[in-house]
Write a structure and sequence with these properties.
Blueprint lengths: L1 E3 L8 E3 L3 H13 L5 H15 L4 E7 L5 E9 L2 E2 L4 E3 L4 H8 L10
């Protein structure tokens, strides 16, 4: 970790030494996007996951009955994974999806 200091600021932020390298890797991925909608989603999610140093990243589509989500892209530790469909019944997500007009949302873990 490298400390980041700013003039006349009393706080100190610690930034991982490789943060700029991860951001550059993410931007390079985005710059090279071509192909299908699925390719775009996969590459974008991969870039976001790398750039944000996230363990998991996913994009999914909700079924019409609001009971299932089909993942269009799933990234784990910066690498694409096999997508799947999962049931929402009995989950916290089911409450969210059934209680709104499906406003887009972002969950970062």
């Amino acid at each position: 970790m490298t400390p980041v200091k700013q003039k006349n600021v009393t706080t100190l932020a610690l930034v991982p030494d490789d943060a700029n390298e991860r951001r550059l890797e993410a931007l390079t991925l985005l710059a090279g996007i071509s192909g299908s909608y699925t390719d775009f989603l996969q590459t974008s999610m991969q870039a976001l996951s790398i750039g944000m140093d996230a363990m998991l990243g996913a994009v999914g589509i909700l079924s019409e009955d609001k009971k299932k989500v089909h993942l269009l892209s799933l990234i784990q530790d910066g690498q694409p994974q096999e997508t799947f469909t999962y049931d929402l019944v009995g989950t916290f997500c089911a409450e969210i999806y059934s209680s709104t007009d499906l406003d887009p949302h972002l969950f970062i873990a």
